[in-house]
Amino acid sequence: MPIEIEAPEEKGYSTIKFNLAESSVRDIPLKNINVDLSELVLVYGEHKGKTELREAIVANSNLDAANVLVTPSAATALFIIHTTLLNKDDHLIVIRPNYGTNLETPRAIGCELSVIDLNFEQGFELEIAKIKAALKSNTKLISITTPHNPTGTEISTEKIKDIIALAEKQNCYVLVDETYRDLNFQTQLKPYYAELSGQVISVCSLSKAFGAPGIRTGWIINKNEKLLNDFLAAKEQVIICNSVVDEEIAQAILQQGNSLLTATHAHIRENFSVLKNWMQSQPYFEWIEPTAGVVCFPRIKEEYKINLELFHELLYEKYGTVVGPGHWFEKDKSYMRIGFGYPEKDELQTGLQNLILAMEECLTNS
User: Model's pTM, two decimal places?
Assistant: First the structure.
């Protein structure tokens, strides 16, 4: 999947005026974080991650630092989980659309995949019956994401409990990619799902909600000591430990998390209002309204037949605007991920208007 080579940072931020492709909030400068690195000794850090950082990750939960493995990004966490648990004789159940690593790493391993597609017509709702029907004797892992990228929808806690019950009966694991959990701008923050069972593996990071992708800090949470040690062994083969600089900054961010998130949520709510009003006022696009996170996954209505390659080319080349095209998520280009947490309000407004301008130009040329 070509998502990374087409990402805004690879296109070059200087070529983009209105960035609606990002799935995170705006990146924060180091000066906004109260952290002093002058006395930090540049040693090998704790292989599991700095104890105080792991404590901060599970603060206000029923978990403790022993349940946490800090990794250099959530993407690395997903790679570690898949390569530790799966081999070519195993079976994985994974939902789609999804972040590329959750599909491509298992494919590279050569394991059998059962892909459960979330459909626009069903409101991107996950059907438990489809997971149950897909289970096999060699099923090793059920992979889900909530809040979901790219749709911004959520799986209810009740459904997740049903999935966990299936996994416990099957003696397999449930991977819950929770990277967007702190972007609950209109709902209550849910506990990590790893609290519910030793069969559940939660993954999260600082990249999306805290605007700190540059320090590459994510984590795995699981209550099974042996399993977490297996993940640690895999991490040690790749990188040994994290950057102590990254971990120091990450700890400071989490310790200031409430104040940072308060401002972030206010910004998201304002931008979401802009996006929602725009969706209701324009004729060309339809969506399933997101409930959490900072992305949605609208599509061009079927009655509008346009050259989709031209649409995305015009959007970028002429209007300086980018979205996440549907093929990033193995859907056609009539779908697009729109990120509403990264842009400033005026950037979002202009970028959305540019979608209409590009659409109307394509209709004129069709």
Answer: 0.94
